[in-house]
């Protein structure tokens, strides 16, 4: 077991005490490191009174549900799937900057209903202390539905979450962040199941080259912007690889393709893109 600093050990103990005080808990569980740590802590303190619930929709990348289920099995927590229908909401599919508000409203509304049916006292999220400083419209939905955020309440940062995951031997301790596929679509571009599938399959194509961290951003005009760590950019711009990507992205329905020279940046769609595009038609 990875040793913890005295400060983080104290935060861990506060986290366990907080979860124990809830009596029972349904964790909004994506299978990422944040929600996994909450699920682990809930299982340790609440036993069978803890359940992990994964929202399932077209915005979930292929393979994520299976990985979440395997991790829940490792943790030993009961794992349920909950179908959500955020894409049926015109407010969500319109893809304005508050898209996440509508997504989380759908998720937490359904989670609250499930928790009531299960007799579970509280819904908890994986929101950590660092998230409170970001632009996250979904936090308003959490507040409206009285969703608890144990990590944030215990002032546990993202780095500390990963340290706890390592200490608990969770397989996702070093897993890159994997937000929903809709987050790849530029604001104002409609979110549709077809576009989500295009993005998912395009990212699978890039990852097949051995590049674990990547984003394919969907921009106006069926344009794709590929973001990878800067050290991986030469691999994507090698002529044979670019030719393969060009053919594959065209087949998926993209009309142009960019390898962003600035590399991967979380939340880059909040920036102004001005990069050269390679025409595919």
User: pLDDT average, as an integer?
Assistant: 93
Q: Could you name the CATH topology of the largest domain? A: Rossmann fold
- What's the helix count? 11
CATH class of the largest domain: Alpha Beta
Shape label: globular
CATH superfamily of the largest domain: HUPs
| Unreliable stretches | 272-281
Spatial order of the strands forming the largest sheet = 3-2-1-4
Distance between the termini: 54 Å
Oligomer: single chain
Structural category: alpha/beta
Number of structural domains: 2
Strand content: 5-15%
* Topology as a string of helices (H) and strands (E): HEHEHEHHEHHHHEEHHEE
- What is the number of E strands? 8
Q: Helicity, in percent?
A: 40-55%
Describe this structure in words.
The chain has 281 residues and is α/β, with parallel strands linked by helices. 43% of the residues lie in helices and 13% in strands. The chain has a four-stranded parallel sheet with strand order 3-2-1-4, with helices on both faces. A four-stranded mixed sheet has the order 5-6-7-8. Helix 1 crosses helix 2 and helix 5 runs parallel beside helix 6.
Question: In a few lines, what is going on in this structure?
Answer:
The protein is α/β, with parallel strands linked by helices and 281 residues long. The chain is built from 11 helices and 8 strands.
Features:
single chain; 281 residues; alpha/beta; Rossmann fold; GMP Synthetase, Chain A, domain 3; 2 domains; four-stranded parallel β-sheet; 11 helices; 43% helix; 13% strand; globular; disordered C terminus
